[in-house]
Task: structure prediction
Amino acid sequence: MTRIAIYDTTLRDGSQGEGVNFSLQDKLLLTKRLDDIGVDFIEGGYPLSNPKDAEYFRAVHELKLKHAKVVAFGMTRRKNIAPEADGGLRALLEGQTPVVTIVGKTWDFQVTEILNATLEENLKMIGDSIAFCRSQGPEVFYDAEHFFDGYRANPKYALQTLQAAETGGATCLILCDTNGGTMPEFIAEVVAVVCKAVKVQVGIHCHNDCELAVANTLAGVRAGATQVQGTLNGFGERCGNADLITTAANLTLKYGYELLTPDSLRRLTEVSRYAYELANMNFRNNQPFVGQSAFAHKGGMHTHAVAKNPSSYEHIDPAIVGNERRVLVSELSGQSTILSKTQKYQINHDKATMSAILNRVQDLENAGYEFEAAEGSFDIIVKKVVGTYKPWFDRLAYRVNIEQGASGAPVTEATVKLRLAGSIEHTVSEGDGPVNALDAALRKALVAYYPRLDEMLLVDYKVRVVNPKEGTAARVRVIIESRDHRSTWGTVGVSENLIEASWLALVDAIEYKLFKDEEPA
Result:
């Protein structure tokens, strides 16, 4: 079985994506997590580009990595400068990493028009930069920038740049589809040519501008590449890079290649979401293999079939990649969906009960509710329909007041009046907005009775207009996403009044947390 080396460039190429920013601590934490799943090479950054990357290469030596080799990234020497006098190459070596990667020009257009160098000078820049770094100890990889565009324009010269890198001592030549515009069949054709023309290993590095980065990477491996470069979740400049999560799953499960560690597949979902959290980005729900919707079923025909045999609408068992099956509740649901969704409840699963729950869901969705992303609210509906719902508190009144403060900025104040445990709680709190103020006032009233509410965080808030033709009198749907140390859940509220819709979703979120805490972990 062929082993494919995984080269992760999330910390360098991935961090160039819009909205992606890792702190030094984030980079160190992600390095450890990548090492844990058996990534072979972790590109930490470009030491000369910023102080944070330089500090990373000092701090990473303190980590006790089990498998991965940390890589410093840099460019060939500048033209007309000896490699030993080039500040970029010196900074690259100061990282004291076991491997360095040097990127160079392989497209004649880039050499003459962007670099303003001669073709011969560029070959020397590639060869002696690699030879100099190699003479100082580390293994050297060569990233052949714009290789496929260069090969299309001038195949002879593109191959000469690889030969210069190989002669200089590079142990792996990585063919880069830098502009992301190459089709898979051309990738396969060119990689096969290169594998015959050189004696060292060949790698593949693809960008996603045509949404083909993963397909192109797989084509490159099938044609002979033995190193794959990419980023977690496809983070990267413009449209991103090849998603190593999807790539690793496909190479292992669909083609049978050996990569990472034996137990790494079941950790792919965890690692994917960990990277999103560090980058402070929302999960991509439809991401293959690890997305929240990757194994979600909504239509009645689908859910009915999956209940009988999951392989009817699933290409793999979601547990293999650490994900889980989800059955979505909506107006498209049939009784089989409701039956599947309610298996966890200790209720009567007869036809009449399932029909009553389904009718209630369909009535509410007709009024503008949506339960696909609000399973917390669905849980409460089930309890109400079957008669097991018990309110944790009685809502007596609430009020929100917004006025302009002395500084000119708006001041929001919420008052909440509840009955619980035989007492009346009347609390007031200020907040950054009406939902924040209501949340603070609710918690102030409840936390003395239910201290575990301190574990709960509101992590997302979405508003959608249900019937836009009504203009400012339209109903709005508010979905609130909450989480604690155990799980994440969504709740929903609908009203012509935005604050009322928010209040309904907020109360459901808190009640779901309290119901959930009754259940065993």
Residues 111 and 117 are 6 Å apart (CA to CA). The chain has a mean pLDDT of 91. The first strand starts at residue 5 and ends at 8. The first helix runs from residue 24 to 36.
